[in-house]
Amino acid sequence: MSDTTVRLNPNLYSSSVSLDPPPVEVQEREPAAPHSTSGRKRRTRKVWIDIDNSPHVPFFRPIVNELRKQGFEVELTGRDIYQVCELLKFFDLPCKVIGRGYGKNKVLKVLGNCLRAVQLIPTASRFRADLAISHGSRAQVLASKLLGIPTVLMHDYEHSTKTGFLEADWTFMPDVIPSNAMSSRADMVCKYPGLKEDVYVPQFVPDFSGLSSLGISQDQIIVTLRPPATEAHYHNPEAEQLFAEVLRFMSEDPRVRGIVLPRNQRQGDQLRKDWADLISDGCLIIPSSPLDGLNLVWFSDLMVSGGGTMNREAAALGVPVYSVFRGKIGAVDKYLAENGRLILLESVKDVRSKVILAQRNRPSRPDCGDRPALQTIINNITSILEKKCLANGKTSR
C-alpha cells in the first residue's frame, strides 16, 4: 500500500480507485468538554459520524456543530471518494479519512464496503461511540454491528438504501418518503420536514466573487451543469443523451455561459475532449480552482443536473432546476416535481420545449423561512441517546 495525502483537486470534483491507504488524519480537534452538575462528573455521550460521499460534508457540518454545542463528543471518519477530501478541507472540517471508492463494479463495491468496515473497526473501537450515524454508509453499519454500536442510517433516495442482510437500528428520512420504503420496522423510522438540503441551506451567505474569477458577469445567463453519475449502479445511459442535448441547446444562445462540475477527474477529461469547441469558445467552463457549489447554484439562472444533491440544493434555494436523471425517480424528486420546484426532462424533445434560457429575478439572499429539519434531526439523535442511556442505567452526558 502506498501513502495517500489529502489533496486539493482543481475543480473540487475528483475520485480515484486504487488500493486502500492507511487512515489519513485531518487536523483532529479536541472534543468538547463534558458537562457536570451537582458536583457529579457525568459521562460525555459519544457520537461517531461517517462521511461516505461528498454531499455529506456540508450536510453533517451543522449537525456536528450542534451536537458539540450540546456537549456531545463527536468523532468523524470519511471515505476518499469523489471530492470528499477536498470538501473537508474547503469547509475546514476535521476528519479521519479511511478507505476509498471502488468504481461502478457491483462485486468490487461489495468487497470494498467489507474491507472498509474492517478498516473502520480500530478507530471505532478506540472511540467507543454510543451511537453511529451516517447518510447511507454501509461500511459503518457493518462495522457497528460487529462492535455492538447502535446505528442511525439517514437517506433521501429510497432506491439505493439496501444494505443486504444488514439494517440500521434507526432510519432518518424526509417526511415525504413512505416509512416502509427504507425500513421494515416503521416504529424505528424518524422523519424530518423538508429536504436534506434544508439542514444547511439556511446558513448560506451569497458571495459573487467566486464566479467573477471565472470571467463571468451578472448580465449573462449562467447555467450550472452537473453531468449524470455514470458510475452509479442506478445510471441509465439515456441521461447522457439528454445532457448532451442540453449542451447543444445552450450553445446556440451567445448570452449563455455554462459552468460544468464533473463528478470525477475521468469525467472531466472526457468532457474536455467531447466539448472542446464549446470550451474554446468560452460557452462552456470547467473551473480550474475550487468553488462553493451552493454559492454557484445561487448565482445561476438555472441548474441542469443528472440528479442528486445539487438538484435539491437548487430547489431549496428557489433556483429553476431541470433533471436529466433517468433512473428510478425517488419520492423526494416526485414531490418537488409535483410542486413545480423541479422539472424532469424525459426525452430529447423535452430539452427544447421545457428548458427556459433566461435570467431569473434573484433577490439579495435566499428566503429560507422556517426550516426545522436540522433541529428535528438533533432532537431525534438526543432522544435516542437519552433512551439508550436510561436502558443501560447510565447518567446522560
Description:
This protein has 397 residues and is an alpha/beta fold. The chain has two domains: 24-35 and 43-202 and 372-392, Glycogen Phosphorylase B (Rossmann fold); 205-354, Glycogen Phosphorylase B (Rossmann fold). Helix content is 34%, strand content 17%. The chain has 13 helices and 16 strands. An eight-stranded mixed beta sheet has the order 1-6-5-4-7-8-9-10, with helices on both faces. A six-stranded parallel beta sheet has the order 13-12-11-14-15-16, with helices on both faces. A two-stranded antiparallel sheet has the order 2-3. Strand 4, helix 1 and strand 5 form a beta-alpha-beta unit. Helix 3 (106-127) crosses helix 4. It is globular and about 65 Å long. Residues 1-40 have low confidence and may be disordered.
The low-pLDDT segments are: 1-40
- Helix segment count? 13
- Give the radius of gyration: 21 Å
| Oligomeric state of the chains present here | single chain
- The class by helix and strand makeup works out as alpha/beta
The CATH architecture of the largest domain is: 3-Layer(aba) Sandwich
Q: What is the CATH class name of the largest domain?
A: Alpha Beta
Largest sheet: 8 strands, mixed
Task: Kindly report the CATH topology of the largest domain.
Answer: Rossmann fold
| Helical coverage, percent range | 25-40%
